[in-house]
Each structure stands twice: as structure tokens, then as C-alpha cells.
Amino acid sequence: MAEFASIRNADRLTWERVSLFARTYQIKTSTSVVGTFKLGLAGRTAQAEFADGSWLLKRRGIFRLTMYVIDARTQAELATMKFRFRRGILTLASGKPYHWRPMGFFSRETGLFTDSDMPVVSLKPMLFSLRGKGEINVRREYASLPELTLLVAVGTYAALLAQGRGHAS
């Protein structure tokens, strides 16, 4: 696995496809790459690699889409996310939930929220970007969450799926 910088001290990240027809995205701060994200065929799977871990993300279903987050090293299931029309609930193996939803009614920005309705991570795709770019904002007060990197990985995959890039080349 490549050496990546930590996302713990970054409050603003971006994702960008490495080339026009690639299935690989880089997650970056302004100065360094913090992770990679590789989409499988048709976007049904993705591999996320960060300094804090490596995960396999699998999606199943069409109308009742479910995402499974699996530790790439141990093959343990770490979380599941069930989607329902622009919303979803990510449940960690510990039982802790995060709510996936748009930041506002007409907003293309989405986020993962705590049970107390505080956004932890928000993701905003850039319009008209051929290379599939977007911004990731991490609330500084949640920088010490042990699952923060996993939330960024899951959020990025969900944002790519919502953007229609989950099946793109």
C-alpha cells in the first residue's frame, strides 16, 4: 500500500479522477494525496486506501440499494448503509448510526450527520467536470473520531454513486 498523509488535520479535501477515462480517484489536501479510490466495473465495488486503513465497498440492489463496508485486510464487515431516495443510514458494526442526506432541499451537496443532526463530513461534486472532481469538508470538532477516514471513504463512494459516476468509465 502507498504511503498517505493523514486526513486528521485537514478540514478541506478534494476528490479527482486521475485521468479522463480512469476508474481511480485521488483524495487530496492542498499539498498531498491522502488516499485513493478505485471503482470496479459498473461501480458495484470500490477499493479505498488511506493511511488509516483499506476498505472494500460493495453495493447490492437497485431500488433498495445497500452498501457493505469490508476491511480489506481482515475481510470483516465494518458497516452497512441502506439508501432510500437521496437518503441513507450508515450503521457501523458497533451499532453507531450516521445519516446520509442532502445538505439542503435543492442542494447537490450531501453529508453524513450524527444522530444529533450535526454534519461530520460533507461532499460537494463540482458541476461540469469531465474528470469528476468534488470537495470534501470535515468538521474540525470531529477530527478525532476513530471512524473519520471510513466516513470519508463511504461518503465519497456515495457521492460518486449519486453523481452517476459509480458506473462511469
Question: What are its keywords?
Answer:
12-stranded antiparallel barrel, 9% helix, 169 residues
What is the N-to-C succession of helices and strands?
EEEEEEEEEEEEH
> Percent range for helical residues?
under 10%
Mean pLDDT: 84
CA radius of gyration is: 14 Å
Note the gap between the termini: 24 Å
Sequence stretches where pLDDT stays below 50 over 5 or more residues = none
What is the count of helical runs? 1
Silhouette: globular
Number of domains: 1
CATH second-level architecture = Beta Barrel
Residue share in β-strands = 35-45%
Annotation, overall tally of beta strands: 12
State the major sheet: 12 strands, antiparallel, barrel
Q: Based on helices, strands and strand pairing, what is the structural class? A: mainly beta
The level 1 CATH classification is Mainly Beta
Order of strands in the sheet with most strands: 1-2-3-4-5-6-7-8-9-10-11-12
**Could you name the CATH topology?**
Porin
